[in-house]
Design goal:
about 775 residues, mainly alpha, two-stranded antiparallel sheet, 33 helices, 2 strands, repeat, transmembrane, EC 2.4.1.109
Length: about 775
């Protein structure tokens, strides 16, 4: 009798009267035997997993674009229809050329392609569609996990009709539920950029399931299918084109083949190798084709990695010390001890996913610099557990136990290797998204531990209720965390209590406040970011910008000067420094700062625009026009540069040239009301009243509350002799802005003229 047992028979895929075709040499103990858990038919189990995984993250469907979504999606030109599809294969995840020195070398063209499809179907950057796809992907992956865990926990067996048998329906359901509701997955599901991890996981699992299909006996009676082995390699390659971790499935397939298909005893094999045992000549390794299959997997993996390396370029990605401080430590001991501490924190996030943060860099985790640091205990605990599990996986006399523990450790460790800093430096300290695949191994180990406890426990119901309680807590934690990912404000503020020493957290809170116009609060967080990281140039730049707008020019200049001193190629800081120097009327220094910014960023339209303003202040009109023209060449939709060109040409009496520039600008930006207004003024002065009137009215329709639009239209009517309409628009302008310069005087002149006309009429 089992508590929670819903039906009294195994599902349709469980062994019954059909004779089973065993890929494992002998029948092993059934992991489900002593477990008190739900027993459901396969399709019901998958529906339950899908529903619960959906409930965990459903409230993120209407969230905003947050954090890295801005760079990977909104600012990524590879999503736009005008970008050739071929460019996706030469650009990184963020839209930069892979050959660029600033590229992170994250090559994920298939993920970017799905973003592009989302963008095209939605007709723009509407986040709902992006979020819905992420939720569907996680639900699909969670459903596939039922099949994957049934193989990993119950073994791979087929009926004589070629159907795969589920020998662990209860434990596979439990493990799939643990995976579906794990809160550490929130970043992948609720953060749109997590699409890379989701797609990678999808093809990762399909590759594994495809490899398992290779051992279904075919009509010719062959032991395995080369076709399905090759399909598995191709799916692994597709997984890697979604995210780099995908390549690790080929190694896991090899481990699975050795342990499950060929039932190798690793410790026994090592002993025979050490003693040069002659029985190895006829070992199962060769007899069952394991060597051939592993050669196929390794050859495929090596080819994929070689092609990936050639596309990426021979140089590694460039990261800074703030991204991963341990990797920049001079001492090998400090690097090793901190890497291991990071591993222990990742393990803790799997065990207790309560303290979650969108970013763990910039001082969030201070470096361990000596063995006296109490955090060494975490390393000791991690390795104590790992060594214990490894010993059991290698030395246990129970082959079932050896297999499950080895597979659990393999799925826990191998997908994590690309993020481990062992082979190359990574651009983060801890990233919750990279634990998505390793959590498969955690779920295996947790479920196996639960089955062992159930075997020993007298009150199995209490144990089952405790596990059910863990699942419910995780569901609630997922719902809470996914709601925090709905907006940047909630996301950034949630990190303050988790990583109060993280300068980037304070920076992002400040940036969010500044974007909402709360400059006073933003200054507080920017100052704290700079205090925590005195070399945080982006925080200095943003703080300097706000101080500039508040006319606190002296401190703004000090901050921006320090920023360019720390990072001499920081083009934005050079430009902002130039703006401050211009405001301080130090024109030569400002010009030099602008040109330095352009030197470090050749295509910098905003800097050319500000340089043009400087030249206009110095009455260097030709230089100003050239600078603004450069801005519009680099960015044809640069409305401010177009406007300034029209106004300068208008003010200097070049009406024909001003009209030509205005018409050119409106062809490129036809719905810009400020350009309509500027061109309307020029046309009015050229006595093209009808066309000028049409543009004024169009501009007013687009922006009806602009006092100057009504005022200048009134002037046009005044000149044109349409005095009643002039009076009407003067009055509207004064109502919108009673202090509008010149409008009141013109209105009074009009009234006197109307009074004079009225007197003449009455006489």
């Amino acid at each position: 009798m089992f508590f929670f047992q819903i039906c009294n028979q195994h599902n349709a895929e469980a062994p019954n009267s059909e004779q089973a075709f065993h890929r494992m040499a002998q029948t092993e103990p059934n992991l489900d035997h002593d477990v008190s858990w739900f027993l459901l038919p396969s399709y019901w189990a998958k529906m339950v997993v899908a529903l619960i995984s959906f409930l965990c993250f459903a409230n993120s469907y209407d969230g905003d674009f947050v954090f890295d979504d801005s760079e990977a999606i909104i600012n990524n030109k590879d999503l736009r229809a005008e970008t050739p599809l071929g460019d996706l294969w030469h650009h990184d995840f963020w839209g930069s050329k892979l050959s660029s020195n600033t590229s992170h070398k994250s090559y994920r063209p298939l993920t970017v392609l799905t973003f592009r499809i989302n963008y095209l179907f939605a007709g723009g950057f509407y986040p709902v569609g992006f979020h819905v796809i992420n939720i569907i992907l996680h639900c699909t992956i969670s459903v596939l996990m039922v099949d994957v865990f049934s193989i990993l926990l119950g073994g791979l067996q087929f009926s004589n009709k070629g159907r795969r048998l589920n020998l662990a329906p209860k434990t596979s359901l439990l493990a799939a539920l643990l995976f579906a509701v794990h809160p550490v997955h929130t970043e992948c599901v609720a953060g749109i950029v997590g699409r890379a991890d989701l797609l990678c996981a999808l093809f990762f699992l399909l590759s594994f399931l495809g490899y398992c299909k290779a051992f279904r006996e075919n009509k010719e009676g062959h032991n395995f299918s080369i076709f399905w082995v090759l399909v598995s390699v191709i799916l692994g390659a597709i997984a890697m084109l979604c995210k780099e971790q995908g390549i690790t499935i080929l190694g896991l397939n090899a481990v699975f083949d050795a342990l499950v298909i060929n039932k190798l005893n690793v410790l026994e094999l090592i002993q025979k190798l050490l003693h040069k045992d002659k029985s190895l000549e006829n070992a199962v390794l060769l007899r069952k084709g394991l060597l051939f299959r592993i050669t196929l997997l390794m050859s495929g993996g090596a080819s994929i990695l070689y092609i990936r390396w050639r596309i990426m370029g021979t140089g590694p990605p460039a990261f800074t010390e703030v991204d991963n401080p341990a990797s920049f430590a001079d001492s090998l001991f400090v690097r090793a001890i901190n890497y291991n501490y990071y591993y222990s924190l990742n393990a803790w996030l799997l065990l207790c996913p309560w303290w979650l943060c969108f970013d763990w860099s910039m001082g969030c985790i201070p470096l361990i610099k000596s063995v006296s640091d109490w955090r060494i205990i975490a390393l000791a605990a991690l390795w104590f557990c790992l060594i214990g599990l490894i010993c059991q996986a290698l030395c246990s006399e129970d082959s079932h136990k050896r297999r499950i523990l080895t597979l659990g450790l393999g799925f826990l460790i191998i997908p994590f290797l690309p993020a481990s800093n062992l082979f190359f430096r990574v651009g983060f300290v801890i990233a919750e998204r990279v634990i998505y695949l390793p959590s498969i191994g955690y779920c295996i180990l947790f479920t196996y531990g639960f089955s062992l406890l159930s075997k020993q426990a007298k009150k199995k119901k209490i144990l089952a209720v405790a596990v059910l309680g863990i699942l419910l807590i995780n569901v609630m934690r997922c719902a809470l965390r996914s709601s925090q990912w709905r907006s940047e404000e909630q996301l950034f503020r949630s990190a303050l209590s988790v990583c109060p020493l993280n300068a980037k957290v304070h920076y992002n809170v400040g940036k969010n406040l500044a974007d909402k116009g709360n400059q006073s609060a933003a200054i507080k967080y920017y100052r704290e970011a700079v205090r925590l990281n005195p070399k945080y140039v982006h925080a200095m730049n943003n703080l300097g910008n706000i101080l500039k707008e508040r006319n606190e020019l002296q401190e703004a200049e000090e901050l921006l000067s320090l920023a360019v001193q720390i990072q001499p190629d920081f083009a934005a800081a050079w430009m902002n420094l130039g703006i401050v120097q211009n405001s301080l009327r130090r024109f030569e220094e400002a010009e030099q700062s602008y040109w330095t910014a352009i030197k470090h960023r050749k295509k910098y339209p905003d800097c050319y625009y500000n340089l043009g303003r400087l030249y206009a202040d110095l009455n260097r009109h030709v230089d100003a026009l050239n600078a603004w023209r450069n801005a519009t060449v680099l960015k044809p939709e640069h409305s401010l540069a177009w406007n300034n060109m029209i106004i300068l040409l208008d003010n200097t009496g070049n009406l024909a040239q001003a009209e030509a520039v205005g018409r050119e600008a409106l062809e490129l930006i036809p719905n810009d009301h400020s350009l309509m207004f500027s061109l309307a003024n020029v046309l009015g002065k050229s006595q093209k009243y009808k066309e000028s009137e049409a543009l004024f009215l169009k501009a007013i329709k687009a922006n009806p509350n602009a006092a100057s639009y009504h005022g200048n239209l009134a002037v046009l009517y005044h000149r044109w002799g349409n005095l009643d309409l002039a009076k009407k628009h003067y009055e509207v302008s004064l109502k919108l802005d009673p202090m509008a310069p010149g409008t009141k005087e013109n209105y009074n002149l009009l009234r006197r003229k109307l009074e004079q006309l009225q007197k003449k009429g009455s006489a």
